[in-house]
Amino acid sequence: MKVSGPSLAYRPMASNTWWTTWLKQIAGNNTVPDLYSYHLEGGLTDVDNDPQYTNSSLRTLLRQYSLPERQVHVNEYAAQSEMVPGGYIWWISRLERYDFLGMLGNWLGGTQLHDLFGGLLTKKSNPASYAATDYAAAPGYPVYQYYNLNMTGLRTNTTGSTDRWLDAYATIGSDKVRILAGLKVHTGSYALAVQGLDAVGYAGGSVPVSAYSFDGGSIRTIATGAASRGSTSYSITKNAITIPISQTTNSTGWVFEFPVNL
Question: What does the pLDDT read at residue 188?
Fold first, then answer.
């Protein structure tokens, strides 16, 4: 049986004595777990509440205590305010980049705690009624459904925005390149640069990109699924295209698809 630890609700940081005491202990008596686990459910603007930060901070601590690297399991991720399509996609993108296992946090209580799939399901009549059985998909459900069923093939390299609000996860399938892009509860104008297009058969000209949005700002609402936002041809410059993202709500998540041209 594999074991994990320390499963703290605090991030791995040199300033956290819970972490440093535990690391010293497992190094001293050789009780290193199979997985390192911790929560990432801090504040929206906390720099350390981010796999980009903790991937580095944990490695530094492991080197300090001469401990081996292990699979990381973020056993609760996303604050309640982040449970919107854009937020879900941001977390998916971060977890994929660093090969972290992740378990979505569950902020519901009472009978809803084990009734509504961590906020990915709602009910048509009354989500708070445990007796009601008219389940329906909440806005996050189609995001994870698309991620599970459509993001297949080869995972590509991606980089989040320098301000840390936007991130993306992309795959090259046998038929299409698919990109999930999401801002973590934020608005503004952004640009998604897609580079290395010759790898999927584009030597020049333009690329026809179909856009879809995942909408919905509350886990109580019924999901509408991926809404078509039309198709646009983007001219290739230096083996790349730039897809603009105009984020007018702090909840919308995005999908961009274009054909593999091999």
Answer: 98
